[in-house]
Amino acid sequence: MPNEIRPPLTDDDSASPTRVKFHAYPDADAWASACAGALAAIVRRDLERNGHARLLLSGGTTPAPVYRALSKTPLHWNKVDIALVDERWLQPDDADSNARLVRDTLLQNHAKAAHFEPMTRVGRTLEEAVATANAHARRQASAAVLGMGEDGHTASLFPGARDLARALASHSDYVSFDASGCPGAGAWPLRITLTPQGLSKARERMLLVRGESKRKLLDRVPDSDDIGRMPVRAAFTTPGAALQIHWCP
Ligand SMILES: O=C1O[C@H](COP(=O)(O)O)[C@@H](O)[C@H](O)[C@H]1O
């Protein structure tokens, strides 16, 4: 992957420590409850200020305990929109879809009343799904909740993918993404993903990370100058809200 790929909106591509805050917790329970508390505070603030709130959520394996904890928080969930940071090109109820993860973990308990916008729908083409995600993205997100894969991907921005440069440079909030040949994409190479352009608009930015190997990976991000190999760097360098990293072993 060439070195020259850069996020489009970044004047200064150095990952400034002033824009990144690292929160470490002793265990998964403390981590989940603190992250859920931080998200609840963001939602509450936007409900008070604007009368509505909107969260962009990642899938994968990491965030489930946070979403479960958040689902039990009493909020005016009927005024909250839940959308996805990225999705695998699967039917909306597929067990491996990010929509299913959000439904099974967050959209329970109090949070059942939230309004969910899955990206995929039976009969919807990939192009229609991307267009719909971009139309919904006109409403500013209260927060974008990101994850990070062991390969350094975030959202569905995969290292070494042929679509990466196009996604990083896109002026759309969401794009389709072909991650064929990227081991980190698993059995689901075709994706829809938030771009740095979309990320730049979120009022708050969180990165949820667990485990020692990912912590070592995180430590390497500020010194990595190759976003093509380390797309999570976009979370550090894209202008906008500071990046709040929440980590536990
Ligand atoms: O495929 C994906 O992976 C990332 C990271 O997932 P994890 O299982 O390592 O937590 C996730 O953030 C993204 O939403 C998902 O589509």
List the helices and strands and how they pair.
Layout: E1 20-24, H1 28-50, E2 53-57, H2 64-71, E3 80-84, E4 86-88, H3 98-105, E5 115-117, H4 126-136, E6 143-146, H5 164-169, E7 174-178, E8 190-194, H6 196-199, E9 205-210, H7 212-220, H8 233-237, E10 243-248
Parallel strand pairs: 1-10, 2-3, 2-6, 3-5, 6-9, 9-10
Antiparallel strand pairs: 4-8, 7-8
Helix pairs in contact: 1-2
List all distinct small molecules, including ions and cofactors, that are bound in this structure: the ligand O=C1O[C@H](COP(=O)(O)O)[C@@H](O)[C@H](O)[C@H]1O
In whole angstroms, how far apart are the ends? 31 Å
H/E order of the elements? EHEHEEHEHEHEEHEHHE
How would a textbook summarize the main sheet? 7 strands, parallel
| Structural class by sheet pairing and helices | alpha/beta
Number of domains: 1
EC number: 3.1.1.31
Catalytic activity: 6-phospho-D-glucono-1,5-lactone + H2O = 6-phospho-D-gluconate + H(+)
GO molecular function, one term: 6-phosphogluconolactonase activity
Enzyme class: hydrolase
